[in-house]
Amino acid sequence: MVDITIMYEHKAREMDSICLIRAEMERRGYSVAFRHASGMGEHRVVPSRVVVVPYLYRNTDLCNIRRFLQHTQKVVNLQWEQLFTMDDENNATRIPRNEAKNAVHVCWSESTRSRLMDGGISSRNAVNTGPIHMDFLRPEFTGYYLSRKDIAAKYALDTGRKWCLFISSYSDRVPKSKIDVYRKQGRQSAGERLVFAHESKRITLDWIEVLLRQRDSIIFIYRPHPSEHRDPRIERLEREYKNFRRIDDLSVKQWCLVCDKVLTWMSTSIVEAYFANSDCSIIRPVDIPVKLDMRIYLNAKMISSLEGFLDCIDDASGFPIAREVIEEYYGLDKDVPSYKRLCDLLDRVLHDDSACVDCNVVAETPLPGPVKDFFIHTMFHDAYVNALVLFGKTTEILKIPLVGSLRRAVNKSRVRKRDYINPKESMILVERIKDIIGR
């Protein structure tokens, strides 16, 4: 048995933070293990005293982790998504419900904590620790990230040029069938959001191509969303323009610290740019209705034309979002780092027998969901994923419409494998962090 199992979803988003948690909890004498939320990787089930999850909204999420909770049922939700659109912020599905309410939910600010309590979460189970992922931008973590020179050597980038970073929040291309399904289900906002994302991405890539043609003194780095699949248009830009690079690796914070200019559309990672003191601009080629926009972007300064886009590359006119708006959602304590407050919480949960949930609940999903969840947690899943990836790379058959679903499965498997944290790399990172925080 281990003391804590930390489940993670997106490597680029979460690896630094969960390694920091592990380093601090091991420093306190506890054992910690990592598991991918999809079940990928080592499949031997090791029970835990506490399971830490990346999200927790419903009973189905509890069903997926109960095999790790053979002795006690203590669950802590890191809640990696705490910034929503105006529509989603008022949506009950964004609040943990049913038995999931009884888990412990980590909040980055009092604003988020109040929202959860208004939704029926007890004050004891909604705990404000601050945003752990912003700890890496504190002064004591200076030197943790690679230098600009290191990054240049790693990715063959010219340090003499201006580096322009685009933080994408486009999770995928938009099939019309998906939009129609959303509309039939009454999920009009979800369908509308896909349309705005699709059109915004198309125009933004047009603007980027104009910039690439005009300014070969700039290296443009396209940082995709963790769930973003390969895009033929971006692949063409990579082939045709030597100063355009799509790079999936490393965290947004790492790139913000070494790039000269940061651009985004509607990514929550704009907050990393804020705490990294980056020169940042918001690109909005298409107006987004207020209900579909994120609250932190309301009243922000936007770039809405090609001319404005080209001009903003050299214009450092101040951060586009007001300080008090960002700090409403990201409550930092100048004296105590968030990782210490979060680990104090884990320490408390480990010794508090009242902090339990009932994982022996019935999932809300129909039969196919639980069957799929069972499959991805078996020893056969990795073999299946590897076979799909190999099959997709070595034959053209996946381009046949009849096997479109198989082709989509291959794409998803590649995303999952990209998100898998190798045990060796995580241990190297944990040891680096221990050198900073102490052993």
Structure commentary:
The protein folds into two domains: 2-131 and 332-361 and 422-437, Rossmann fold (3-Layer(aba) Sandwich), CATH 3.40.50; 144-329, Rossmann fold (3-Layer(aba) Sandwich). It has 17 helices and twelve strands. It has helices at residues 11-27, 59-63, 86-89, 110-118, 148-155, 176-184, 188-214, 232-240, 252-258, 270-275, 306-312, 323-329, 338-351, 368-376, 380-394, 404-418, 423-437; strands at residues 2-8, 32-36, 48-53, 75-77, 104-107, 126-128, 162-167, 218-223, 244-246, 261-264, 280-283, 302-303. Strand 1, helix 1 (11-27) and strand 2 (32-36) form a beta-alpha-beta unit. Helix 1 packs across helix 13, helix 6 (176-184) packs antiparallel against helix 7 (188-214) and helix 15 (380-394) crosses helix 16.
Topology:
Elements: E1 2-8, H1 11-27, E2 32-36, E3 48-53, H2 59-63, E4 75-77, H3 86-89, E5 104-107, H4 110-118, E6 126-128, H5 148-155, E7 162-167, H6 176-184, H7 188-214, E8 218-223, H8 232-240, E9 244-246, H9 252-258, E10 261-264, H10 270-275, E11 280-283, E12 302-303, H11 306-312, H12 323-329, H13 338-351, H14 368-376, H15 380-394, H16 404-418, H17 423-437
Parallel strand pairs: 1-2, 1-3, 3-4, 4-5, 5-6, 7-8, 7-10, 8-9, 10-11, 11-12
**Fourth-level CATH superfamily of the largest domain:** Glycogen Phosphorylase B
- Biggest sheet strand line-up: 2-1-3-4-5-6
Instruction: Tally the beta strands.
Output: 12
| Beta-strand percentage range | 5-15%
CATH architecture classification of the largest domain: 3-Layer(aba) Sandwich
Mean pLDDT, to the nearest integer, reads 83
- End-to-end distance, in Å? 23 Å
Helix content: 40-55%
